[in-house]
Amino acid sequence: KDIQALTFVLFGATGDLAKRKLFPALYNLFLAEKLPNSFSVIGLGRREWSHEFFHSKIEESLRTYARKDVQEDSLQDFLNHFQYSPLDVTDKSAYKRLQTHIEDREIELNIPGNRLFYLAVDPNLVEVITENLHASGLNQTSGWRRLVVEKPFGTDLKSAQQLNKKLSEAFDEMEIYRIDHYLGKPMVQNLASLVFANPALASLLDLKQIANVQITASETVGVETRAAYYDNAGAIRDMVQNHLLQLVMMTALHLPENITAEEIGNKKIEVIESLKPIEKEDAHKHVIRGQYRAGEVLDTPVIGYLDEPGVPENSMNDTYFAARLHIDNPVWGEIPFYIRTGKRLDQKSTRIVFEFKKQKRALIPAEELVPNLLTLEINPSEGISLKLNIKEPSSERFKPTCINFKTNTDDQSDAYELLLFDAMLGNATFFAHWDEVELSWKWIQPLLEAFENNLLPLHTYPAGSTGPEAADELLKSNNFKWW
Ligand code: BG6
User: Fold this and answer.
1) What global pTM score does this model have?
2) What is the pLDDT of residues 23-37, one digit of tens each?
3) What does the entry list as the binding residues for substrate (predicted)?
4) Is 243 a catalytic residue?
5) 340 CA from centroid of ligand 1 (Å)
């Protein structure tokens, strides 16, 4: 299927996301000839930029961040699709001028009224922009209309519900595309086909043989310059409510049966609905929160969270989160899911590990064997590995051995490229739908309250480590360890 001619109305065109992700993604799609010929991008921002200055900024972004080298002979053709218009998004009357601008371009480029509104803006502005799009009539077009919103989607259950109510006054659920860039990662998108195309893998993942599932999203970076946002969000809102719970849903839904892309949405809801609630009084039994101290990350000394610029000296914010979850349905029954994420850890890695049950028959001393592991590496490298016990003929002993497959990611589309393409095409499979988002907030809400009321300790961990020791204890109590 091809993308139809459209206008891409980009709020936040002077911002960081546009520069780092959106322009390069559009450019890669352009080079791959996936964009329609009639394609208009109207960049909007507070600053008084000219079209030419806007073009120079886009060019700079492509030269810095695009996956492919800039093709000098077609660069201007690409840039010609872009125009800039200064806009105070809170000024209702300014949207009329914007409407004229969009319509003029639609006529000039022969674009039917297909409009994609992309809100790459401060979350506080999402409501007012949507309201003004609606009030000005900009979203009433003769073609299709879509709204793409970035995370965070609300800051708790109530604010997410309020935000959604506002959005649904202007757009139908089918027209709202909530970006979760973890759903754009190729390995996550390929989970379905991996199991579908490989019956061997599917039978390997026979749930009777699985001891636990571990999902890790560890980062080496600290809070960077985002303290104003991050100190209020914490790992729980920044990573868990969205990315990690989406990974839990995506992992759980593909087993044990083959499902089609159309079924993904409903299956995800089934999974998140079955996620056993953790009451706030019980949070301390199942959840570990942590904050990094000074330490060394990849051989470089770094300061602790409390010394980071913009972080209040007594901040109780979580930069690490780990939890034990249960998907309370007949399929997953007693198999625990362990999830963890944190900043300033020892490595950058997003992965899903299936740990298999140990051999019960005592022919071989248990301590000689490691559990078999199937690991799906999502990021930054991508691949599959299987850890087995292989006997070394010379020593008669077993040695853990990994069978490794790494995907060649050199020429691979990145998450934003895949997601922008889908949004322009009208395929919402890999976006977060309201029910999932709401159920994720419902599950998280008691934990937010437990954090707020300090019902569980805030552990610290040295930067460059694998996280607080308490997180190891969480698994030790079930005779497991993190992989
Ligand atoms: C973002 C978070 O959503 O995801 C960041 O706001 C985090 O804090 C980032 O660093 C991680 O994404 P990735 O793709 O690098 O794993």
Assistant:
1) 0.95
2) 999 999 999 999 999
3) 181, 185, 219, 238, 343, 348
4) yes
5) 14
User: Rounded CA gap, 466 and 219, in Å?
Assistant: 10
For residue 245 the two structure tokens come to 């719970």
- Report residue 111 as tokens: 């674009």
Give the C-alpha separation, 456 to 283, whole Å: 7
Give the separation between CA 299 and CA 89, rounded to whole angstroms. 45
Answer yes or no: is pLDDT of 187 > 70.
yes
The atom of ligand 1 lying closest to the CA of 415 is: 14
Asked if the model's pLDDT at residue 394 lies above 90, the reply is no
Q: What is the average pLDDT value for the chain, to the nearest integer?
A: 94
pLDDT for the residue numbered 191:
84
213, β-bridge pairs: 337, 354
Q: Is 185 annotated as a binding residue?
A: yes
For residue 186, say if its preceding peptide bond is cis, omega within 30 degrees of 0: no
Atom from ligand 1 closest to the CA of residue 221: 10
Scan for tokens 């003769």, then name that residue. Answer: 142
Could you give the CA distance from residue 400 to residue 371 in angstroms, rounded to a whole number?
9
Question: Which pLDDT score, from 0 to 100, does residue 391 have?
Answer: 86
Query: Ligand 1: residues within 6 Å at CB?
Result: 219, 238, 350, 379
**What is the C-alpha to C-alpha distance for residues 256 and 64, in angstroms, rounded to an integer?**
43
Q: Which two tokens stand for residue 113?
A: 């009224």
Query: Comparing C-alpha atoms, which of 52, 50, 42, 31 is closest to residue 6?
Result: 42
3-state secondary structure of 54: helix
Report whether 14 belongs to an annotated binding site.
yes
Q: Which residue has the tokens 């004229």?
A: 100
Nearest of 150, 83, 188 to residue 418 by alpha carbon: 188
The ipTM of this complex is 0.99
Residue 362's pLDDT is 63
The atom of ligand 1 lying closest to the CA of 230 is 8
């299709």: which residue's tokens?
A: 144
Strands 300-302 and 295-297: antiparallel
- Mean pLDDT across the stretch 139-163? 96
What is the Å distance from ligand 1's center to 49 Cα? 29
Best residue for ligand 1 mutational test, from 20, 155, 185, 219 (most atoms within 8 Å of Cβ) = 219
Predicted confidence at residue 88, as pLDDT, reads 97
Phi, psi (degrees; rounded to nearest 5) at 136 = -80, -15
Annotated ligand binding at 357? The verdict is no
